Amino acid sequence: MIWWVILLFIGGVILILAEFLLPGGICGSVGLIMVVLSCVIGWTYYPDYFIWIFLVELFGVIATIAGGFYLLTRVNATKKLVVEETQAVEKGYVSVKHDPSLLGKVGKVIAPLRPAGIIELDGKRIDAVSSGKFVEVGSLVKVVEISGPSILVEELIESENKQ
Hints:
Layout: H1 2-21, H2 26-45, H3 50-74, H4 76-79, E1 106-111, E2 116-121, E3 124-130, E4 140-147, E5 150-155, H5 156-162
Parallel strand pairs: 3-5
Antiparallel strand pairs: 1-2, 1-4, 2-3, 4-5
């Protein structure tokens, strides 16, 4: 009867390991049932060694799961599921194109900046953000910083007063 215990355990471990390559839950569930059945049969026929049977099978299942995760990182089939390429600006991946030549230019507010709004610069409508202050429609603003898609502006009157 010991052979049934060993065969059920080995079959269960193989199915648990197969679950990592064929996900879906069926192989892992059947494998776990086989391991538990192996433990119950071992306990029934060898009650004096139940704790050892249980510990060996528990260690075997934990080692199998650890091996499955290790296998997942080493198999070429799973590497094809991961995109290893980054979306760098140098490769043309940009969410919003910005023009660095806008830096220092003066524009007119056409939608209030509270703190985000719209300015008109060189005849184009551009989303902009003020440096924290509300700027009303018609005010003149100067582009002081361009950081990615964000264009930071300051009201022109206040910048003249500071100088």
